[in-house]
Amino acid sequence: MKLAVFCGARYGKEKKYINLATEIGEYVAEKRLGLVYGGSFSGLMGAVSTGVLAKNGHVTGIYPRGLFDNELPREEVSEFIYTETMDERKQLLINKSDAYLILPGGLGTLEELSQVLCSISIGLIPKKPIGILDIDGFYKPLVDFLVHAADEEFIDPETIKHVLVSADYKSLIDQISTQLAEMKEVA
Question: Sign (positive/negative) of CA torsion 151, 8, 10, 13?
Answer without folding.
Answer: positive
